[in-house]
Design brief:
This protein is 36% helix and 8% strand. The chain is of the alpha/beta class. Strands 2-4-6-5 form a 4-stranded mixed β-sheet, covered by helices on one side. It is globular.
């Protein structure tokens, strides 16, 4: 949502407005389309499925950790500030875990159907096949920016770029080897990138965008979505709950049993404007951040 050569799987969302009323059917029944779908991934379909399945366990562990609130040793206070954040964090993580369907997603064949996400591997003709109303061409974004994946607000599709498959699938080996360190009450070093640099976490990140919908921070929001760990800590509670990287870092910290995190109520927080700019500049200077549109 990284320091050094950071290839964490991050993304931001675009605010997209739906259009044609002709797309809307009217059915009195409210039903759940329970099965998410994976499209256009060919021989990589199983790899996407594996990443989704492997993400279920850390989600369950994180949901349990949320019950501790700020008493959690895994950075809940750093990333969400107060116990008052626990209902929203729990809601989003449970929605991801169950792949809860949402209504009024584009394309919506029936506004009464709750639709889970569809994971689409981006191809050169994806825009033509899935909707010319897409403001940006997913293939061009993948090629031009080197992103791993993206979600466009209001749509059913979570787009998976080719580069996604260069990421490691899920953590293995010693669970704490990539845990971050804290010096001067700030995250330091390159560990935060390696901590979050997995396919499982990227898909969780994109699904946070999906379930937050128009509440989510993105490239065009104010404030913008942030991936820098210390800026995630610097956000107030309300903004933290809108920033998908805060969720991604917390799930990673819980799964990998990391226990060092800054106190967001002690100096240097809140970060002075100049320091915030430096954090973002350094974070984005790696060229490895996943910035979707």
């Amino acid at each position: 949502m990284l320091l050094g050569v950071i290839a964490t799987a991050l993304a931001c969302a675009i605010q997209i407005r739906s259009s044609s009323a002709a797309d809307v059917a009217t059915s009195p029944s409210l039903v759940q389309d329970t099965k998410y779908d994976i499209r256009d991934c060919g021989s990589f379909t199983d790899e996407v499925e594996v990443a989704l399945d492997l993400g279920k366990e850390p989600l369950g562990t994180a949901i349990n950790a949320v019950k501790q609130g700020i008493r959690s040793p895994h950075g809940f206070q750093a990333f969400f500030k107060y116990n008052a954040a626990t209902p929203k964090v729990t809601e989003i993580l449970k929605n991801i875990q169950s792949m809860k369907g949402l209504r009024r997603l584009i394309p919506y064949p029936n506004i009464w159907i709750r639709q889970p996400p569809v994971f689409v591997c981006v191809k050169q003709d994806s825009r033509e096949r899935y909707g010319t109303r897409l403001r940006r061409d997913p293939y061009k974004v993948c090629q031009d920016t080197g992103v791993f994946g993206m979600y466009l607000t209001g749509w059913r599709y979570i787009w998976i770029c080719e580069k996604f498959f260069t990421l490691r699938v899920a953590p293995s080996g010693p669970t704490t080897r990539y845990c971050p360190h804290v010096t001067g009450n700030k995250f330091v070093g390159a560990e935060m990138g390696r901590l979050a640099d997995y396919r499982t976490y990227l898909l969780i990140h994109e699904m946070v965008h999906f379930y937050l919908g128009r509440e989510s921070l993105g490239w065009g929001t104010n404030p913008k979505e942030s991936y820098a760990s210390n800026i995630c800590v610097n956000f107030d509670m309300k903004t933290s709950l809108r920033n998908p990287m805060n969720f991604q870092y917390f799930v990673a910290m819980v799964e990998q049993q990391c226990t060092e995190a800054p106190n967001p109520f002690l100096p240097p927080f809140p970060l002075p404007p100049g320091m915030v700019a430096d954090e973002e500049k350094f974070q984005n200077s790696t060229g490895a951040l996943d910035i979707s549109w």
